[in-house]
Every structure is written in C-alpha cells, then in structure tokens.
Amino acid sequence: MYHKVAAAGPGAKIRSHYVHPSAFRRQIRLLKSLGYQSVSPADACQKTARDIAITFDDGYANFQAYALPCLLESGFGATVFAVTGLLGGTDEWDGGQEPLMTRDQLVDCGRQGIEIGSHTVNHADLTAVPPEIARRELQESRDFLIECGFSNPGFCYPYGRQDDSIREVVREVGYPYACGTRRGANDSTTNMFDLHRVNIRSDTSLPVFLFKLLRARRGR
C-alpha cells in the first residue's frame, strides 16, 4: 500500500506517506528480480507465492509522474484508488497540499494498464457519516468510474475505517472487493471486503521492504 511517490517538501504533512521515487524504483526492481508479478486485489485471495497486488491510495498526480513510468518499465501493473469528487484538485482531507490526478490523467493511466478503483467521492470516513451519505459516497463514485470506462471498479476504505454495515453496503452497491489497512497476506479465508495490505512508508528501507514482503508471504 502506497500513497505518494515523491520527495516530501519542507511543509509536507504526514511525511510518512511519501516514498521517494528512487526508493520506489529500488523496491520495484527488487520485486522484479525476485520474480514477482502484479495482480489485481480481486485476485489477492487466489494468489500464488509470486503474485503481488500493488496499490496506491488517493490518486495523487505524482503517481503518473513518478510511479507509472517505473512500473511500466518493469512490466508491473497497479491499482489506484481515486477520490473521484476531487479529481484535478488537492488532498483537502490532508490540508490540500498535494495535487490529485485529473479525470483525463486517470483515464490515461487506465489505458496504460493501471486498474482504477474508488476511494469514495470526498475521502469520507464512512463510519462517521449518516448511512445515506455513506451509500451516496459509494454509489456516486462507482457510477463515475464506470462512466469513465472502468467497468468493474474495486474499492478502498478511506482511513481504513469500516464495520459490518459499511462492508455490506459496499457489497450491495456492486463493488467486487474492498481493501482495508489490516496488515498481512490474503488467502482463501480472507473476507473479500476487508482485504489485507502491507503499508510502505517513507522510512521503509530496502531491507525492511524485503522483511515486510517475506513476513506477508508467511501470513504474519
């Protein structure tokens, strides 16, 4: 699970969300050298030992600028979960410092093999808003992505926040899967609407990256 692939500026908030492009390139090259291949989170529960789902939350413009070229160079795909109501704007939930991709940029990424999923319309904490607002955030974001040509988008919970009722609405709206923030690997016992992920941060050195990779493979 990545957020931003960019150098953190002097006033950057949540600096742990920034992975420097050079560090990202080393991580992707390591995956390539170890024989990994990328899959959709939809296939995470049926993965083989060398399958990996690479995900990016929020849909930052720096994904297209820095992450996408590296991924394509190494033959990897990825999944970007976009905040559909703020495309072309900034990350308002984090203070509005980082630009998000525009609709055209999102579509262009899709044309280059990147899977695009939903992160709601406004990066809403679905557990903290009225049920009708939560459903609207989920439905309108999915409808928008389908209109853009993404036929069966997946979902990712903002802040990782969810509960049984929210997971049920995600399923009812029509998403095939949803990613949370619970650490670890996925297998046939994992709830498809609470897929686990491994957080990659600014301080994830290459040895730590490898450790996290191996720990996830062992299911811990």
Protein model, in words:
It is a single chain. With 220 residues, this protein is α/β, with parallel strands linked by helices. The protein has one domain: Glycoside hydrolase/deacetylase (TIM Barrel). Helix content is 34%, strand content 14%. The protein has six helices and ten strands, in the order ββαβββαβαβαβαββα. The chain has a three-stranded parallel sheet.
CATH architecture: Alpha-Beta Barrel
Task: Please report the number of helical segments.
Answer: 6
Number of strands: 10
Strand content: 5-15%
Helix content: 25-40%
Distance between the termini: 16 Å
State the secondary-structure class. Answer: alpha/beta
CATH superfamily: Glycoside hydrolase/deacetylase
Would you spell out the secondary-structure blueprint of this structure?
Elements: E1 4-5, E2 18-19, H1 21-33, E3 37-38, E4 51-52, E5 55-58, H2 61-74, E6 79-82, H3 103-111, E7 115-118, H4 131-147, E8 155-156, H5 164-173, E9 178-183, E10 195-197, H6 206-217
Parallel strand pairs: 1-2, 3-4, 5-6, 6-7, 8-9, 9-10
Helix pairs in contact: 1-2, 4-5
